[in-house]
Design a protein that fits this description.
By secondary structure, the chain is of the alpha/beta class. The protein has one domain: Rossmann fold (3-Layer(aba) Sandwich). It is 23% helix and 27% strand. The chain is built from 6 helices and 12 strands. A 10-stranded mixed β-sheet has the order 1-2-4-3-7-8-9-12-11-10, with helices on both faces. A two-stranded antiparallel sheet has the order 5-6. The protein is globular, with a radius of gyration of 18 Å. The termini are far apart. The N terminus and C terminus are likely disordered.
Length: 290
């Protein structure tokens, strides 16, 4: 079903940071006051930003309880792809049913990128710092989902592949007071000085044989987040990942490398969700779960 665009009903910048674990308080969205919800588990939506009509897919668990806030995950596709494509290609839609979270799959508009020395134009995400149409789209989608479903505004997350991974990093840097955690895959860092309004938990995945986005970009992104979050100390090895200690509550940084190329690691989806789902924007009121 295609929904009509409607006015943004909440001010994203005013969302307060409180605990969001099952044993603590949550930050319920306006939709938590609804007595019931539309039963369809997957719906197509459109939102108008400036003069462009943007499309996105919304998945939620089959069973929704009124007044029970669920986490929200944004999944951003790579350059030249679509929200529908990454939804079909990754198991988040099945995981959302099993784990009980809401997932959003937006589709980008044409952007021009330099790839292997050649200029190419295809659907994707703007990466310029300081605000752009896709940041505005993300805020608008969040506002709409917050009105029509019951979500926990302290447990909003982003992941994405390639160009979508770059964009996930941008969202973490520019909307650190909205996103509790991000998990870019096969992408690079923010093209500016990353100074989030609050610490953001970050898990980076990258293949050491990636010939599209060099692993040096992933390392630079890792270092950017270590600095931005104020982490200190030597890395702690955990399987194929390194965790960086001395980070503030809510700002842990995890860096994972495998032998793959420019692709989504097979085991990354569940690993990413375990990481993201343990994070909230409740910075300073409890220890960050590792």
């Amino acid at each position: 079903m295609l929904r009509r665009p409607f006015a943004i009903a909440i001010a994203i910048g005013t969302l307060s940071a409180v605990a969001a674990t099952p044993s603590a308080a949550v930050q319920p969205s306006p939709g938590c006051k609804l007595p019931s919800f539309e039963r369809s588990e997957s719906t197509e939506h459109s939102t108008k930003i400036s003069s462009a009509t943007r499309t996105w897919i919304l998945d939620h668990p089959a069973s929704l309880e009124a007044g029970k806030p669920l986490p929200l995950l944004f999944v951003f596709h790579g350059f030249g792809h679509s929200g529908a494509g990454i939804r079909e290609g990754l198991p988040f839609r099945n995981l959302s049913q099993a784990e009980g979270f809401v997932a959003v799959y937006p589709t980008g508009l044409p952007v021009t990128l330099e790839i292997r020395g050649r200029s190419q134009r295809a659907p994707g995400w703007q990466l310029k710092p300081g605000g752009n149409r896709d940041v505005e789209l993300t805020k608008a989608i969040l506002a709409e989902v917050a009105e029509i479903l019951c979500i926990d505004l302290d447990r909003v997350y982003a992941t994405g592949f390639s160009n979508g991974g770059f964009f996930s990093n941008l969202l973490g840097c520019e909307l650190g007071d909205v996103f509790a955690a991000i998990a870019p895959v096969g992408g690079g860092g923010y093209r500016g000085v990353c100074k989030p309004k609050a610490p953001v938990a970050v898990m980076i995945h990258h293949g050491n044989r990636d010939n599209v986005v060099p692993i040096s970009m992933a390392r630079a992104s890792r270092d950017q987040w270590i600095e931005a979050n104020g982490c200190a100390g030597d890395a702690e090895a955990d399987d194929s990942c390194n965790r960086y200690p001395g980070c503030p509550p809510g700002g842990v940084v995890v860096y994972c490398v495998d032998d793959g190329g420019h692709s989504w690691p097979r085991a990354a989806t569940e690993q990413i969700w375990r990481f993201l789902s343990s994070k909230s924007r409740d910075v300073g009121r409890r220890d960050d779960p590792r």
